[in-house]
Amino acid sequence: MKISFLLVDRCHIGGVVSAIHNLAGALADHHEVELVALRRNRDHPFFPLDPRVKTLPLTDTRKHSHTYDGDDPAMDAFPHIYPNEPTDKKPWISRLAERRLMEYLATTDADVVVSNNPKITIMLAYADRDFLKVAMEHSRPARYGAHIRDALFRDAYPKMDAITAPTPDECRTIAGVVPAVSHLLSPMPNCIPAHEGQMSTGDNKIVVTAGLLKPHKGFADLIEAFSTVAPRHPDWSLRIYGSGPERGNLRKKINETGSNNQVFLMGPATPVTPEFAKGSIFVLPSHLEAFGNVTVEAMAAGLPAVCYDAPHGPRNIITQGEDGYVVPLGDKAALAEHIEKLIADEDLRRKMAAAAVANVVRFQEAETVARFERLVETMRARRAIPRTATATVTPRGDVRVRVEGLPSDGDAELVCKDVRKKAEEVVLPFVGGEALVPGVGTLVEGDWELTIRSAGFDLPLRSAGCDTLQLLSLELPRAEGPALSLLLPHAHTDGTLRVQSRVRAQHVEVAGLDAGAASIVIDAAAWGVEPGADSVIEAVHRKEADKNFTVPVRAGADGRFTAALDNAAAARLHQPGTEDVWDFWLLPDQGSARIRVCRLATDVLVPMDVFTYPYPVVKTSGAPAPAAEAAPSKSRWRNRLSAVPAAVAGPRHELRPYFSSNGQLSLKIIDKK
Q1: pLDDT of 634 higher than 60
Q2: What share of the chain is helix, strand, coil (3-state, %, to 5)?
Q3: Residue 102 has what DSSP assignment?
Q4: Among the listed residues 377, 222, 373, 200, the one whose alpha carbon sits nearest the alpha carbon of residue 286
Q5: DSSP letters of 428-487?
Q6: Coil, strand or helix: which one is 417?
């Protein structure tokens, strides 16, 4: 099997580069492995790489190199697909690098292509070859900027065969942000090689840490915490390895805490693992850590670890109280307490050190390679399951789902999942490649995702078309069951197959609307309930209950009725400079529950987009004229608009009748400029 890893570059110090170098070398025992980098700017990368792993830099910025690309005009051009940062004045990744990557993807003979950067994942999604595509996340996608998120979550992720994250916690976070790709997620911890060279003896009275010197790494917290411990243990010291923009502030913090004789900024060390053997305790005070390679490397060298509970790495590496401690994020007192606990108790320290060496084996080469190979097997098994489906509405209103290529004798099932996660899933058998979703009594109201369950997988069905012709002749209201029972299959925006279930025991269906200059007349029918003599339409304001009003209903035959809204009276309830919105309900009588006034008995998925009306404009005044004393109303809950005082001509207000996202008739009033 040939495996290709895509990187931005290999020439910087970072956990992603280190982890991919480690994984590539481990896989090279049994596979052909290649590292493809968009750019190269150094002769020698910081991290070693197994010589069996091939490397391919797509652009070269080294001026002394015979492959130098700096003279190519495309090196100064911004890419078309790869999303550079909005603040970039010059392209970090050039149009030339982008073009060469797309050429590589169009010609590679790799069986598996793995992106290790979200921006590269966006480009990988454009490849139409049949190799397996993996998006390997090493950070926290929920925190990406909008210029990355939209293209990544909506367009790229669904085209991957797998998406990995360093921890199960991060997989759950991604699933919460992009539910449609939940079935593609797998934990894939970073690969950390088995420790080579000397192990910590536990005799040196040194606490050690390492990382980029940036604020989120929390080294200032560690200096403060250690400075409270140091006076009681003057023979212990703290060594901080790394470089970065925070170095000056950390030096100031050391001076402020009077720790100059016990806290030392050691500078960068590449590799840093030999330095871990000099210590006896490792501390990582990072406030944000998707994984934490250095924690595993230090534990492999024989150091117990103390870490902040940063999302999400440390809690997935350390076994609490066995090989180290995870303390509350930002709690410097707890950090100091647990450092001192290990300093003061030599037996505990050595016991935890031994456990650390044993426990981090699960992150080393053998187990990581096995984990990656299982992922490839899973991707291939998922691909083998047919997922392209059509949905057809029958004359009875049932939905017949057919999956192309599904064996007639298989054990596949159609699983209907409530998108809101409020109702239990509904499981139906496939017979001869088809499954039938009954139009009545099966799916409660809501949106349902249709998936196929086979070989232990639940995979969203991809829509190949929906035939809803029979909905136009479906007899409604239903003679049996809820008055409104309608299933509307449709392709979701991500291309998956869904069914919108519309179920109402009592329902008010709008047949038409006449939005005139003086009034808005509603023509509707009540199903499952008969409008009474005192029936009214109640307009319920979304924010201010004192703006609610009612409109009398004129009842007809078979539940039909009309209601005429006085535009001028409604406009007088509008507060200038604001936006007022009312939702309409039918009150059949004073003792009945109100019923939404909707337009749902249709094959139209989003009534708001199709059923539109004119916007009458009314002139009113913010200062109403005094009203004559009105006789007491026989009913306190109806005809409120008749009590609204008349007004002199003044500002203009626009009335906008429309169907909201749930199909309910609503009215918005705004100022007309």
Answers
A1: no
A2: 25, 30, 45
A3: H
A4: 222
A5: EE-BTTEEEE-SSSSS-SEEEEEEEEETTEEEEPEEEEEE-GGGGG--SS-SSSSSEEEE
A6: strand
pLDDT digit string, tens, across residues 543-592: 999 999 999 999 999 899 999 999 999 999 998 889 999 999 999 987 88
Given this model, what pLDDT does residue 631 score? 40
Separation of CA 25 from chain center: 32
Residue 534 CB partners (closer than 8 Å, separation 6+): 589, 590, 635, 638
428: which residues sit within 8 A by CB, 6+ positions away? 413, 414, 415, 416, 435, 436, 437
CA distances from 3 to 34, 110, 121, 164, 372 (A): 6, 6, 16, 16, 11
> What is d(CA 283, CA 305) in angstroms, rounded to the nearest whole number?
6
What's the rounded Cα separation, in Å, for the pair 304 and 335?
14
Burial of 561 (0-12, 13-18, 19+ CB in 10 A): buried
φ, ψ dihedrals at 372, nearest 5°: -65, -40
pLDDT band per the 50, 70, 90 thresholds, residue 532: confident
Between 532 and 502, the more confident residue is 502
Token readout for 125 is: 């999604």
Alpha carbon distance 310, 289 (integer Å):
6
Helix (H) or strand (E) holding 671: strand 665-671
To which residue do tokens 């390997």 refer?
136
pLDDT at 633: 41
CB 36 within 8 A of CB 5: yes
Average pLDDT on 649-661 reads: 89
Reported in sequence order, the residue ranges of 528-643 that DSSP labels E, i.e. its strands, are: 536-541, 549-552, 554-555, 560-566, 580-587, 595-598, 617-619
Ramachandran sector of residue 577 (left: φ over 0; alpha: ψ -120 to 50; beta: rest): left
Q: What is the pLDDT of residue 639?
A: 54
Average pLDDT over residues 134-145: 92
Over range 392-420, report the average pLDDT: 93
Whether the per-residue pLDDT at 646 is higher than 60: the answer is no
Mean pLDDT of 227-247: 96
Report which of 458, 496, 463 is spatially closest to residue 382, judged by C-alpha positions. 458
The pLDDT value given to residue 453: 96
What pLDDT, in 10s, does the model give residues 15-26? 889 899 999 999
* 408: Cβ contacts below 8 Å, ≥ 6 apart: 431, 432, 433
At 370 the three-state DSSP class reads: helix
Which string of DSSP letters, residue by residue, matches 327-347? E-TT-HHHHHHHHHHHHH-HH
Query: What DSSP line would sit under 26-78, residue for residue?
Result: HHTTTSEEEEEES-B--SS-SS---TTSEEEES-B--TTSTT--TTSGGGGSP
Q: pLDDT digit string (tens) for 179-218?
A: 889 999 999 999 998 888 899 999 999 999 999 999 999 9
Count CB neighbours of 231 within 10 A.
10
Q: Using CA atoms in the order 349, 350, 351, 356, what is the torsion angle rounded to 10 degrees?
A: 90
Give whole-number Cα distances, 279 to 232, 423, 587, in Å.
Answer: 19, 55, 76
